[in-house]
Amino acid sequence: xxxxxxxxxxxxxxxxxxxxxxxxxxxxxxxxxxxxxxxxxxxxxxxxxxxxxxxxxxxxxxxxxxxxxxxxxxxxxxxxxxxxxxxxxxxxxxxxxxxxxxxxxxxxxxxxxxxxxxxxxxxxxxxxxxxxxxxxxxxxxxxxxxxxxxxxxxxxxxxxxxxxxxxxxxxxxxxxxxxxxxxxxxxxxxxxxxxxxxxxxxxxxxxxxxxxxxxxxxxxxxxxxxxxxxxxxxxxxxxxxxxxxxxxxxxxxxxxxxxxxxxxxxxxxxxxxxxxxxxxxxxxxxxxxxxxxxxxxxxxxxxxxxxxxxxxxxxxxxxxxxxxxxxxxxxxxxxxxxxxxxxxxxxxxxxxxxxxxxxxxxx
Length: 363
Fold this sequence. Notes:
Layout: E1 3-5, E2 21-23, E3 30-34, E4 44-51, E5 57-68, E6 70-79, E7 90-95, E8 115-123, E9 125-126, E10 129-133, E11 139-145, E12 170-173, E13 186-193, E14 203-208, E15 211-216, E16 222-226, E17 229-231, E18 241-242, E19 256-264, H1 266-271, E20 286-297, H2 322-333, H3 352-362
Antiparallel strand pairs: 1-20, 2-5, 3-4, 4-20, 5-19, 6-13, 6-20, 7-8, 7-19, 8-11, 9-10, 11-12, 13-14, 14-15, 16-17, 16-18
C-alpha cells in the first residue's frame, strides 16, 4: 500500500498530520462523523460540505513521498439524498516539484515535462448528447489534462487564438451515462498508468462497486475526436477509430505523485443548476458527501466486501463444481479482474482463489 486513510480514531483537526493541505478544517466544511451504514468495520467517516454563498466545498490534498508509474486509488463515498450536481471530484496527478497546496491551471494545456492529471468526475449532461440531462449528482466520467489534450475552440481541437485559456479538461465517459447513486455507499476506484515518454501507451480506468466500468488506453475504445471530446456516440462520431492512448508525459522524471480527495461545487452554485424533474429532491444551497476508507496502491485494490456469487456458483447453474473453478480461473487471468474473483477474500485475485474454491468443493 502507498497510503491509507479510514478516518478512525482521528478528528478533523488532526487530519493535517497525514495530509499535505486541507481546505478547510471547519465544522461548516469538514467534519468527522459517526455513520452506522458504512460498509466497512469502522464507523467514522469524513463529511465534506459546500454551502452556497459561504464556500464551494473542500479537499484533502496529499503529496506522496515518491512518484509512481502506475497508481490505483479506491475510496468509498455517499452523496446526500438531496445532493446537487458536482463541479469537480477526486483526482490523481503528477507534477515536478509538487507544491504544498494545489494551484490553478484551468484552461491551460500542461507541458509533458511538467505536469498531468485526471479526475474521476461527475457531469450533468451526457458528453456525447448535450440534450440528455442526467439526474443529480451526475454521471461518472474522467476529466483529464495532459500535453496532447484537445481544445474546445475548433472542431479540430486546436485554439482559435481568440481566448487566452483554450484548454479545459477533456472528458472520457461511458457510451451510456452511468449515474452516481445518492443516499447509499459506493466503492469508487480509478487507475492511471504512465506512458513511455515517446509513446501514447498511457491508460486510465475506473470501477464502481468492484465492476470495471471503462478502460481508456490504446485501442480499448473507438470514437472520433471532435473539439475536446473523444466522441464515442452521437452526431459527431463521424469517423470512429481506435483511441490512440495517452501520452501523459514526455520524460520519465514525471510520475504520479499527488492525490486529492475533493468536493468542489463552484459552477453548480453559480449557475443554479437543478434537475429537469422538479419532483427529484435537490438542495441547491447545501451539498454534502461522505468519504471513507481511502487507499492508494500500485496494484488493483477492490472493494472491502467482494460481491461473490452464493456458494461459489460462478457459472450460474445452481451448484458449485469444476466448471465454476474453470470460470474463476478465467476471471483471475483477466488484466483487471472483477472483485468477485477474490474468492478467499485476501484482497487479491490470484491462483489461490480457484484453488480455495476447489478445496471447498471436494471437502
